[in-house]
Specification:
Length: about 170
């Protein structure tokens, strides 16, 4: 009986799985509705007192998205004031939805990749995962990788879609 050969393991392909790189992000939201006067407007004096006296340590080592679940006009300076207080404690702070924060966190992860690990390699960016990864992250990752890789593919080692191949010197 002939031994089964794992051609994928011998191929020299480097598989990059974003899902495996992702740490367990500790994400929390801060709803501005809780600091609005009668749920409608922001009173500067009251808001400044809240920001000054609130125990921000509850946000220690977390990533925070600031949003409003009610339709209210909130001045830009209010978000800046919150950011000034939260930044001391948080990993990351954004104004927007949870998805906006996750996009920022993914970008930080991509930016932190050591491209030397992929220099002149044949890289497959794994496409199937249980984690929802924004398409723009795949776009940004490929933009970085094509500057160093020999070739870039998308999918699984047994079934890839070619994305980029470095031209051979003439």
């Amino acid at each position: 009986m002939e031994e089964i050969e794992n051609k994928v393991a011998k191929s020299g392909l480097v598989t990059l799985e974003l899902e495996e790189l992702k740490p367990n992000w500790n994400i929390v939201g801060f709803d501005m509705k809780d600091v609005l006067w009668q749920g409608l407007a922001l009173k500067e004096k009251d808001f400044r007192e809240f920001v000054k006296t609130n125990n921000w340590s509850a946000f220690e080592s977390k990533s925070v998205f600031i949003f409003s679940s009610v339709d209210a006009i909130i001045p830009t300076w209010a978000f800046m004031l919150l950011s000034a207080s939260l930044t001391e404690y948080c990993e990351t702070v954004v104004v927007g939805k949870k998805e906006d924060l996750e996009l920022v966190l993914w970008r930080k992860l991509i930016d932190a990749l050591d491209l030397n690990d992929f220099k002149d390699q044949r890289v497959i960016v794994k496409g199937c995962s249980d984690e929802t990864i924004p398409e723009t992250i795949y776009f940004e990752l490929s933009s970085k990788l094509v500057t160093v890789v020999k070739s870039l593919m998308f999918g699984e080692p047994c079934s890839t879609v070619p994305i980029y191949k470095k031209n051979s010197p003439k």
